[in-house]
Amino acid sequence: MEEFSSLMQGFSVALTYHNLLFMFVGILLGVLIGVLPGLGGANGVAILLPLTFTMPPTSAIIMLSCIYWGALFGGAITSILFNIPGEPWSVATTFDGHPMAKAGRAGEALTAAFTSSFIGALIAVIVITFLAPLVAKFSLKFGPPEFFAVQLLTFCSFVGLGKGHPAKTIAAMMLGFALAAVGLDTVTGTLRMTFGTTELLRGFDFLIAVIGLFGIGEILLTMEEGLAFKGVHARINPRVVWHTWKQLPKYWMTALRGTLIGCWMGITPGGATPASFMSYGIAKRFSKTGEKFGTGEMEGVVAPETAAHAAGTSALLPMLTLGIPGSPTAAVLLGGLLIWGLQPGPLLFVEQKDFVWGLIASMYLGNIVGLIIVLTTVPWWAAILRVPFSIIAPIIVVICAIGAYTVHNAMLDVALMLVFGVVGYLFKKLDYPLAPLVLALVLGDMAESSFRQSMLLSRGEVSIFWSNGLVGSICALAMLMLFWPVITKLLARLRRGDNDLDEARPVE
Amino acid sequence: MSDDGHHESGAHRGVSTKTMEIVVALLTLALGLVVIYDSRRVGAGWAEDGPQAGYFPFYIGIILCFASAWTLWQTLFSGKAAAGVFVSHKKLRLVLSVFVPAVIYVAATWFIGIYVASAAFIGVFMYWHGRFAWSRIVPVSLSVPVAMFLLFEVWFLVPLPKGPLEALIGY
Question: Which segments constitute the DUF112 domain (chain A) (predicted)?
């Protein structure tokens, strides 16, 4: 109950006139940032951080976290309408969101995405409010082997649950890891796969790959099909919203699972991107209509969106309680806290009560304001679709080029974006899945460093990955996922064998 | 890239899917070998202070080679290999009609800056593919770079590549 009274006090801080205004501005800026490919939540918060130095810390963090919520919402808009994920965590939303839009159900897809995001975030905020101390204790138990095991689980579930051929899934994934390894090795300081090029020192940023693979690749594919965004109409009005809301309760289980995965991945710094992929994969496995995933199933939109928002929101928990950022954006916000002279950690809850609870209250309010804003401004975003393709296509190429350039202010990245565009075109036509490639590129560094740290701890003994119950069970689950197709085949064969016997018996 | 598939006739002539499967699998195989080679160069074993720089990528390279060989084997020897045309010549021309201008656009950005290059790219694209009148091409192709300039350069304070024209007006 103590949390409840603190939260009420937080609402009184967040509900002042100027804080509400910052919330509103933050959400609008966030949606804009989320919509522009390449200008992600982390970049957006980082760019706008200097603007908030003159504000009181509470107002500043409210505005910045609202930019974050806005970016989380905004990423879904371009994913669904153009098949261009504005944010890495909206990649999984494109799988079913864009086919829905192509089938003329853009309004439904957007409403489902926004509502699921809202629900995911709301449950995550409730988790933050009431479980903060408990969860903080648990995440202290996570060492490098556990981190690696969680990442292994994510990758294995791709191979086992993906719809593509395992060889192609593995090839795409390894390509992502290989690209992630390019550049300066931060542990030993060795240059890897740069072949004497200073430009490659930075390595390959996943944003460049995403912009090329999805943005340029999609333009090339669309060109091949003729000059049109086929059938993408986004009519969103109260009737469409109401109609979608009536359907959503059917997917309560998917939403709940997505939220749990998201909270888990957000707190144990897995992040919103793997959470959205994992939630999508698991929803596909457990859904009655799993085989239809990828063709425009609303459930395929609900799953990644709830998980991404729950992860994005709960990533702030370890940042506040332990000073460990659960996501890149949380890392930038952490930088902000330090600049404002606030020391994150358990003491923050004691010493800066107004700040912490004001922020938590703003998470509730920010998401409500966000949902209202995105639902009401979508017709404006959707109006872009009425513009002919021969105008939109070059503009998208220009936006992609700008997005690729702004990641590191490097022209080489823009050229690389075109190369990734060709890769995206080829891979898509040959059924190589793009998601594992991007995921490996995003998590490659993290996976490698947690693997190396584990190896250091065990002096090269792989047995560290089943040295205790926690890491052992995650690894076992990963292996189960990896060999899932073989297991299901074997089980089916066994069952068929039994049936044959059963059928044989009466004859006898 | 344009390799003639001889199995189809008339309008469906183009690059065969099988050829492209083989090309892409060979490319990923080559990349895998590069990864293995470079990992061995920087050391793929165990040093006194722990795993060497190539320790992790070395295994990535091996798995990449294995997966590519698997795909290659499937394409060449398994009956399930995909048949048909990957892209017909007609469609390839359409794809190139957007890709080649995009390459020229990116190259031009180095010399004349992104704003001027964008205006030209949008204008040419609209004229070529949309057959729009100049009265529509000019306002659209000019307003987009101006909006970008305001958004990135003025509002977000993100500098984008600029050329001689921007220098002339003091940027």
Answer: 20-439
